[in-house]
Design a protein that fits this description.
alpha+beta; Anthranilate synthase; twelve-stranded antiparallel beta sheet; 13-stranded antiparallel beta sheet; 32% strand; 475 residues
Length: 475
């Protein structure tokens, strides 16, 4: 374990050429295992201030259910350990052991008055797949598991590059006691050409549910709703195609088409995840918690008058407002598990946020963590996000497992970071794709309530991927 009195870090300004984007730098790392990018994708959304990239983790954690494997590269020879345990408990221990992030061992700041504010210097970054929720709640598994990549993949990183878009400034952040690139190393990369292979689909998109099957499942959900099992259930279909070439090229096209504030690119040894999500799941900043669920969708129109009509219809839709309120109540309950009494608040309800493909209804719930809780206990208490399960959550998850043919993997999971100070920011992985074994997967669905119209719900699932599937077809 590292001693806390040895800890310090640097935040160095990068003198990059004008008009540099984080993707220009990350392109030189995109094909390296465990390279990861949290990307605001040129979005003008308030949540889109920072881009963060990492590579060369000092430790990694891969979990298949409770079967966890960690690999650490501090010594001359990497050390690998296996556990049969809660993956979030393993992650907490890994951070404590490698970075000494326990309460009395937090990394010190060299010059507090001079260092700029950046959200991530070092810590854990990666993904928490939807099926990780099975580690926290037990129910009979019925969906198939066609995927090979882990349910959860997290790296522990000792350096990062951060782009503050508000200041138009790049920073190289690092822990002094570990090796890291120097600013000139990064600048030199930008002077070198980096050409990745093209990307193309080699088959048509195929859904794992026909329209008939999808609507049959909606009818089954309606039966459950009428019987009182649930108030709302999310149902998704999964699209699959074959591909060849570089997923990085596919991601660049998707980020440009969608400009989603919680976009991300994660490259593992044998899989790549591309996310263009608009939705925050959980953030923690100095013990203050925030979640911003999306529930309620209307398609965009190129005609300004028609587009405004869609906004106006969403604003007054009793169905969408009721769905949104159900999830707000669910998240208030989830946050109450780890937040102080009387700190849960709803500062924003039913706000309209517009993205490239759709308009969404968004609310905000806040709270303050109990002194004995941390980001990982908050994540476990609220995982997976209520906006993509339904309510009550556990019964909705059981129905999802019964009705969706395949497990969700990364879809409706979460991507984000837990930094060495214990702060966290994570997304909900909607509009998210998985590439492995020359197959590419993409999901879309929505929340079903008693007054849902089956044809509308089926169409909405296509509206949500209208800037994804056709974009990749054109490459």
């Amino acid at each position: 374990m590292l001693h806390s009195d040895l800890k310090s870090y640097r935040i160095q300004t990068l003198a990059v050429p004008a008009h540099t984007e984080m993707t220009n730098i990350f392109a030189h790392f995109a094909d390296k295992p465990w390279a990861m990018l949290l990307d605001s994708a040129n979005s003008q959304h308030p949540n889109a201030q920072f881009d963060i990239m990492v590579a060369s983790p000092i430790s990694t954690l891969a979990a298949y259910g409770v079967k966890c494997t960690t690999t650490t590269n501090i010594q001359v020879q990497p050390t690998t350990q296996t556990y049969d345990a809660n993956p979030l408990d393993v992650l907490r221990s890994l951070l404590n052991d490698v970075l000494d992030t326990s309460d009395n061992g937090k990394i010190k700041q060299n010059q507090p008055s001079e260092n700029p504010k950046v959200p991530f210097i070092a810590g854990a970054l990666g993904y928490f797949g939807y099926d990780l929720g099975r580690c926290f709640e037990t129910f009979v598994e019925q969906a198939k598991t066609p995927y090979q990549s882990p349910d959860m993949a997290i790296g522990v990183y000792t350096w990062s590059i951060v782009h503050d878009k508000h200041q138009d400034q790049f920073y190289l952040c690092s822990l002094n006691q570990f090796d890291s690139p120097e600013p000139n190393d990064i600048i030199q990369l930008l002077a070198n050409d980096n050409t990745a292979a093209d990307f193309s689909l080699t088959s048509k998109w195929q859904s794992n549910l026909s329209k008939h099957d999808y609507i049959q499942r909606l009818a089954k959900i309606d039966d459950y709703l009428k019987a009182g099992d649930c108030y709302q259930v999310n149902l998704a279909q999964r699209f699959e195609a074959d591909y060849r070439g570089s997923p990085w090229q596919a991601y660049l096209a998707l980020r440009d088409a969608n400009q989603a504030p919680f976009s991300a690119y994660i490259h593992l040894e044998n899989a790549t995840i591309m996310s263009i999500s608009p939705e925050r799941f959980l953030s923690v900043n100095a013990q203050t918690v925030k979640t911003q669920p999306i529930k309620g969708t209307r398609p965009r129109s190129l005609d300004k008058i028609e587009d405004q009509k869609q906004i106006d219809a969403l604003k007054v839709s009793q169905k969408d407002r009721a769905e949104n309120l159900m999830i707000v109540d669910l998240l208030r309950n989830d946050l109450s598990k780890t937040c102080e009494d009387n700190t849960i608040d709803v500062p924003a309800l039913f706000e309209i946020e517009s993205f490239e493909a759709v308009h969404h209804l968004v609310s905000t719930v806040t709270g303050k963590l109990n002194p004995g809780e941390d980001a990982m206990s908050l994540l476990q208490g609220a995982f997976p996000g209520g906006s993509i399960t339904g309510a009550p959550k556990i019964r909705a998850m059981q129905i999802i497992d019964e009705l969706e043919p395949d497990k969700r993997h990364i879809y409706c999971g979460s991507i984000g970071y837990i930094n060495h100070f214990g702060d966290m920011d994570t997304s909900i992985c909607i509009r998210t794709l998985l590439c492995e074994n020359d197959n590419i997967y993409c999901w879309a669905g929505g929340g079903i309530v008693l007054d849902s119209v089956d044809q509308d719900e089926y169409q909405e699932s296509f509206d949500k991927v209208s800037k994804i599937l056709p974009v990749l077809e054109r490459l």
